[in-house]
Amino acid sequence: MSQNPHIIVVDDEAPAREMVGDYLKMHGFAVTLCDGGKTLRAAIDQKLPDLVVLDLNMPEEDGLSIIRDLKSRSDVPVIMLTATASPIDRVVGLELGADDYIAKPCELRELIARIRSVLRRSGPKAATEAKPAKQQLVRFGTKWLDLEAQALRDDDGNEHPLTASEFGLLRVFAANPKRVLSRERLLELANARDAEAFDRAVDLRIMRIRRKIEPNPAKPAVIRTIRGGGYLFAGEQP
């Protein structure tokens, strides 16, 4: 993450857009203001930001379509701003790869806290050692989870993209091997911001994770479903 993270604020309402932008600038962020998907894409073509703050409810192109397009282009973190979006919209936004959401009108201090939290979880990590400490690597089926770098890699060292929420779940499983974790416990340990939306999306997130780590995703053995209980990480295999 750069010394002055670059944030793009996307909102079709100029007063709201400028208020958020001014507040972020006061707290040391570099800010670009966009009024919709078209100007967002133009800004990203110039320079990829560290994070996007995106209003879901816009007249020309809704935020969910923008998230889908954005995540197909890059892995930039997204915080959704929602005024009237239904819970299912938040679920879809999270499943499309958004990292957090906050209701409008938002408390700007909370928005700053959310931004910093997502940047810590999603920002690129500078390598400080030639090789991570052994205890920072956890085997998940066909992949290795690097807890320090917040990265998922295969045996050849190739990195496989993770959203912040996917990493959060894997981190919880890594700290609790061979323990049954209910959805509620996963929410608590993963510090989920939107418990209601995350709870409905957790099964889909687990499905996506399994596609990345399981030798046979159709018959998961690394992260197992415990009927009536939740999920269990089987632990590193010998």
Can you give me a brief rundown of this structure?
The chain is α/β, with parallel strands linked by helices and 238 residues long.
What is the CATH topology classification name of the largest domain?
Rossmann fold
CATH class of the largest domain: Alpha Beta
Intertermini distance: 36 Å
SSE order:
EHEHEHEHEHEEEEHEHHEE
The CATH level-2 architecture of the largest domain is identified as 3-Layer(aba) Sandwich
Q: Whole-number radius of gyration?
A: 18 Å
Number of domains: 2
Biggest sheet overview: 5 strands, parallel
Mean pLDDT: 83
Structural class: alpha/beta
Tell the overall outline: elongated
User: Going across the major beta sheet, what is the strand order?
Assistant: 2-1-3-4-5
General description of the model:
It is a single chain. The chain has 238 residues and is of the alpha/beta class. It has 2 domains: 6-122, Rossmann fold; 134-233, Winged helix-like DNA-binding domain superfamily/Winged helix DNA-binding domain (Arc Repressor Mutant, subunit A). Helices cover 40% and strands 20% of the residues. It contains 8 helices and 12 strands. A 5-stranded parallel sheet has the order 2-1-3-4-5, with helices on both faces. Strands 6-7-8-9 form a 4-stranded antiparallel sheet, with helices on one face. It has a 3-stranded antiparallel sheet with strand order 10-12-11. The longest helix has 19 residues, at 195-213.
